[in-house]
Amino acid sequence: ICHGKIVGDCLKGDLNSSREVLVLGDSHAAMLNIFFDDLGKQLGFKARVITASSCVTIPEFDYHRIPEWAQKSCIAQINEARRYIDNSKIIFLAGAWQFHTQYPTFNDPLIQFINNIKPHQTLFVMAQVPKLSNNPQRAARLNGMGFPVNVSIDKTYLEANNNIESMLQHHENINFIRLNELHVFIK
Hints:
Blueprint: E1 11-13, E2 20-25, H1 27-30, H2 33-43, E3 46-51, H3 68-85, E4 90-94, H4 97-100, H5 104-115, E5 122-126, E6 131-132, H6 136-144, E7 153-154, H7 157-168, E8 174-177
Parallel strand pairs: 2-3, 2-4, 4-5, 5-8
Antiparallel strand pairs: 1-3, 6-7
């Protein structure tokens, strides 16, 4: 996958289709590679997925605050994404909003990106899915060994989703997709 580096053409889905969407973001977007591959094959589009660790791959992202080991690939992926943003009719953006929105320096680049979406473009911003208190596989293993570990949903992600959604309110061609409301996440 094109996470932190460019591998091939970074395309998933129906590679013969002339319809293409752009997928940007951090590891939360990278986790959607298989989703976009399957959906693209079913619906007849290809998805160009450009992501990096701890980095929302949009222009002017505040990469200085992320770990030093992630900065070089972040900058490279942002530059790669710039090549496609203006010509993309449909853009998906996903990220660990709970992490990024705690830094005031993140908001301005995101608002600038949102404001630069042109009338002929559609932006889909995907909500952060619930963050769990513990790794469920690790908890199951420990529970099986007699060490009780509970897994619960850390609800602080909801505030981050609400903050991101409020930034999008006055834009007709920008949609917030509340993945966190899917039945699989309801407890």
